[in-house]
Amino acid sequence: MTPLLNTQDTTVQAMPAQSAVSCTDAELAARIQELETEMRMLMWEQLQYIAEADHRAIHAETTARSLQVWLQGLLNIDPRDAKTRVTVARNIEDRQTFHGELMPPDLPDTAAALAEGAIGLEHSRVIVNGIRRLPDYAHCHQVTDVETTLAGYARTMSPRELEKLAERIRYLLDQDGAYRDEEAQHEARELHYATTRDGMTVIKAKLDRETGAKFAALMQPLAAPRPEIDGEKDPRTAGQRNADGFAALLDLALDHDGMPRTGGQRPQMTIAIDFDDLKRGLEVIGEDGMPGTLNTERAITAHNARRIACDAEILPIVLDGHSLPLDVGRTKRTAPTHIRAALLRRDGVCAFPGCDRPPGTPEAHHVEHWVDGGATDLNNMIMLCAHHHRTLHNQRWDITMHDGRPEFIPPPTVDPRRTPRPGGTALPTQHREHLRELIPPPRDPAGES
């Protein structure tokens, strides 16, 4: 059997390229984007060769116990990376029958997007794993629609956001299985702590998604960076801020007077879910019911959302038909708690396009300034991190509201064409509408369609 690759020859012929130093900013950005597309296309080609190596069982001629281990040694990559390439290769390969007839890949839309360079290996891994986790009846009837949906959104979403969408699809199509997973997480919960020889306490914990959402809701404001003083930023690391936030949390728990219970509000975990879905029993598989989302952006079954909603200290955010929080504005300059909760649901910590600032204490910004007559309501406010709040004012960005969501118009110094850029981190309306289309038809008690 002839090996596919010559592992002895490691010489790489460098291709001539324009000096990066001589490029304009626009040329640099364009070239970086072009190279990413080319690398993705080359990855698709490599995956075709990996699939063929799999068919030939090429690793059997070596000491490697599997193709994954063989590939790991051949390319000097991590085991997880090797496993991803093998798994994706088996699903996007161009196949032939014994008679030489071409067969479409198992995931044709994913293969096409990868071949075009529109998505990367991580996108493909998310899609493959998302398809694998679907229930059996969805594999029989809806896998094509789900794959088309995920491959389509992969062209514009990061792998992390795509993974959240894939999870919501699974929660929609397998509500019983999702509920069992949540119960299994609850059973797997654990927290350990010990005192080291130097007197420090070490804590290790695994929390189910509900408890994790509560923890995050409490910790984020307590662990936020301190405001700058005379231009000096908070010198603490993220880990140190988290430790200080946890210490503050313990102080509040010990000091009951410092944690208002009457006439005030404690930090709240939020669950966003349609009011009708909150009321519905969802006892019949396939009934029109959407999963909710915690403030950690992870899905939660309607069953557990209803149970959690019994707690008077949970703040429900009821959504309208376009996945937007209902308007609950009041005539105040400072955004009250219910307005901030709705803004956080719509915009995330910061609505500025491409913001990657770590979670902290966001600032509610009036699009039309309050002193100029701007209202303190959802249609005139956005959430911004401190950095982008300053950027907005210093660079003089304009903001408009389009279909209830903010759009940012850069100044001519940033973009001479002043092309509007969508803001916010909440999923677009189309995501929810497409999820509605994926709801399976109701089944009778016998389990027949």
TrEMBL record:
Positions of the UniProt region annotated as Disordered? 403-449
Q: Which domain of life is it from?
A: Bacteria
Q: Which CDD domains match?
A: HNHc
Q: Composition bias, kind Pro residues: at what positions?
A: 439-449
User: Keywords assigned by UniProt?
Assistant: Endonuclease, Hydrolase, Nuclease
Membrane-spanning parts = none
Query: Where does the HNH nuclease domain lie?
Result: 338-390
**What are the protein's GO molecular function terms?**
endonuclease activity; nucleic acid binding; zinc ion binding
Annotated SMART domains: HNHc
Q: Which family is this protein grouped under?
A: Belongs to the Rv1128c/1148c/1588c/1702c/1945/3466 family.
Please give the name of this protein.
Answer: HNH endonuclease
What is the protein's species of origin?
Saccharopolyspora elongata
